[in-house]
Amino acid sequence: MSSVPVAVVTGSNKGIGLAIVRALCKQFPGDVYLTSRDPGRGQAAVAQLQQEGLRPLFHQLDIDDLQSIRALRDFLKEKYGGLNVLVNNAGIAFKVHDTTPFAVQAEVTLKTNFFGTRNVCTELLPLMKPYGRVVNVSSMVSSSALGGCSQELQQKFRSDTITEEELVQLMTKFVEDTKKSVHEKEGWPNTAYGVSKIGVTVLSRIQARLLNEERKGDHILLNACCPGWVRTDMAGPKATKSPDEGAETPVYLALLPSSADAPHGQFVSNKTVRPW
Ligand code: NAP
C-alpha cells in the first residue's frame, strides 16, 4: 500500500474540475486523480496536462453510477488505504433556453448534482484520512434559490439539526412536486439547478456536523463553495473568471493547512465565508 497522499477531483476532464487538477498537480504533495465518466475524454485531459509538464493520474468515475463510485472507493482503499483530498466538482446545468420539460430538468439535474454527489460522499467520506479536506462545489445560486423558497423551506434548509434523511426527502419532494406542477405552490423556487445546489450546500453543513460528532480529533475540514462565474461549457464565454481563477477557492479549501481548524461546514466564495 502506498503512503503517498492522494487527491481526487470529480468531473475533471474539462472546465473548473480540470483547472482544479492542474492547480493540485502544482501544489499538492501527492498523487492527483483526474476523473471522468468517459475514459476517452479523461485520457485526453490527462494528455493535455502532461503537455504542460504535469503528472495527473486517471480513474474513471461516473457519479450517476454507484458501481463506478464503488470501484473508485475500492481502488483507493487498496492502493492508498484512504483518501486525503476529495473535490466534488462534477455537475450539470440545463441551458436557460432549453425546452426540456421542467419536471425532466428537475429529475436529471437533481440526480447528478445532489444525489450523485451525495452517493460519492456516502462511499468516500469514510475513507478520509486525518487532516483530510473535502470540497463540495456548490454555487452562489444556492443562496439566491434559498431566498426564493417559502419561509418554511428556508427555515428547514437553514436548520442546524436537519438530518441527511430529511434533506433527501425534501430533494425528492421537489422532483415529485415538479411532476405534479405544484412546486411553486409548495414553496419551491423555479430553478432546478438552484434547488440542486441548495441540496449540495445543506448536505455539506450536515456532513461537517457529523464529522464533528463522529470523527472529532481527526481534524477533517469539509466545506461547500462557489467558484465564481467561470468561462466553461456550462456558463459560456461571457463569464468573468477563467477556469484557473474559478479553481482558486476550491483549491484554497482543498489545501487548508493542517494547523487550520476553520473554515468547516461553511459556504465559501472568493475564499471568504458567506452567510447561509
Ligand atoms: P463543465 O465545464 O460543464 O464541466 C462539468 C464537468 O462535470 C465535466 O467534466 C462533466 O463531464 C462532469 N460531469 C457531469 N456529469 C457527470 C457525472 N455524472 N459523472 C462524472 N462527471 C460528470 O462545468 P463547470 O462550469 O466546470 O462546472 C464545474 C462545477 O462548478 C459544477 O458543479 C458547477 O455546477 C459549478 N459551478 C460552475 C459555475 C460556472 O460559472 N461555470 C458557477 C458556479 C458553480 P462530461 O465532459 O462527461 O460532461
From TrEMBL:
Class in the EC hierarchy, top level: oxidoreductase
Tell me which InterPro entries the record gives.
CBR1-like (IPR045313), NAD(P)-bd_dom_sf (IPR036291), Sc_DH/Rdtase_CS (IPR020904), SDR_fam (IPR002347)
Cellular compartments annotated:
Cytoplasm
Q: What is its EC number?
A: 1.1.1.184
Using the UniProt record, give the first listed, main subcellular location: cytoplasm
Question: Which keywords fit this entry according to its UniProt record?
Answer: Cytoplasm, NADP, Oxidoreductase, Phosphoprotein
Q: Which GO terms describe its molecular function?
A: carbonyl reductase (NADPH) activity
A Pfam family that the UniProt record links to this protein: adh_short
What domain of life is recorded for the organism? Answer: Eukaryota
- Gene3D superfamilies the record matches: NAD(P)-binding Rossmann-like Domain
**Which SUPFAM superfamilies does the record cross-reference, listed alphabetically?**
NAD(P)-binding Rossmann-fold domains
Q: Name one GO cellular component term.
A: cytoplasm
> Its family?
Belongs to the short-chain dehydrogenases/reductases (SDR) family.
Under the heading PANTHER family, the entry gives: CARBONYL REDUCTASE (NADPH), CARBONYL REDUCTASE 1-RELATED
Task: Specify the protein name.
Answer: carbonyl reductase (NADPH)
Q: Which gene encodes it?
A: Cbr1
